[in-house]
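Structure tokens
________________
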Amino acid sequence: MRLSWCLTKLRLRRWHIFYTLLIPFMMLVYVLAPVNRRIEHQQDVILKENGESSHSSITTTGTPKIRTRMGWMVINTVNKIPVVQYRGAELTNKSFDERGWLNVKNNPCVEETNKPQPESKCLQITVEIQSRMGNHMFMVAAMIAAANMSGRCSIISPTPMLKVFNLQNITALNKGEWKKTTTKSNWLIFDSGKIAVYNPAVRVLPTCKNVILRGFFQSWKYFHHMKPEIVKQFTFIPKVQEKAKIALSNAVKAVKIAKTATVVGIHVRRGDIIKDPFYKRHGFDVPDVSYFFKAMTYFQKKYSNVVFMVATNGIEWSKANLNVVANILGTNVVYLQGNSPEVDMAALAMSDHMIMSLGTYSWWAAYLCKGEVIYFSGYPRDGSIMGGKLKKADYYLPYWIGMK
């Protein structure tokens, strides 16, 4: 009899514990469910306002026209489905009206944001400069495009680019001023994520905060929609242009060919990328001579009076291999030597067509060139660490020609 009574007590205690845990959980679900439904509803509202669908990938036109001090909204993609995130805000039932929309009635922060603000009230945008010249150019180009899209004023910290390009409508601050400005509470950081994968969330920046762009932004999708402006910003200063023109002229004169020569720039990257095992481990495969043979053959067959002009940090390898290719093709090859990196880039950009190697320096020389571009499709190596951080469709322009 006593044993039966004990078992009954144990069963009651077990059910008591179960219900003790279940009831708070059900109450939590009851409180949060309406907010989740409203977030999903608001997502559709924002996307429809831009002429987009919640079941399609984000397009590159339009920006949401609402802003709120509750927090800031970005659109990310999870499994290719746009998702609205609210940051810095605790959403409650009072955050939404009876339709499930954000409650923006009589909210002084709600305003049209598709027009640039007056300069005195202009929100600011900047970028954390890191690495070398080619990376700097990607970062600044993304900043210029984001500033144009959101009507912001651009500021920049010290960078060698200021001594190379005629950057316009960008306020340059010294290191101390830049750090003091960007450490204030009204700044937020936008991280690009993977090195060379386009992040569409950059299209919807916080509308009540200044923004610091962090990352490498190595994708043409950030700025190619305004290429004429980007090319204008990356106009080399007169001193660099003059030196590049002289180098280009000397290249043509060296082979005693007519002024109607078709100059094809070739960038050959060797040096550090060959010596440092880090690059090999991460998938930075360097093109061999067979790649350059295919690319040079393409231009030699398509155009007349072709002169190949080579810029490289591996002059010995280039002469030993590309001279052989030139002899086989019966063409001319000359080398840029003794110039600064910016002069070589300017000369490559002035050439009629371009054969890339790998790296951001090579990428930008090709982007600024007005003719056809051939790129090394073996970079990055499939299955490598860099291969997981670089999406080729986002990195290489669709009309560039890939060879291996």
About this structure: Residues 4 and 10 are 10 Å apart (CA to CA).
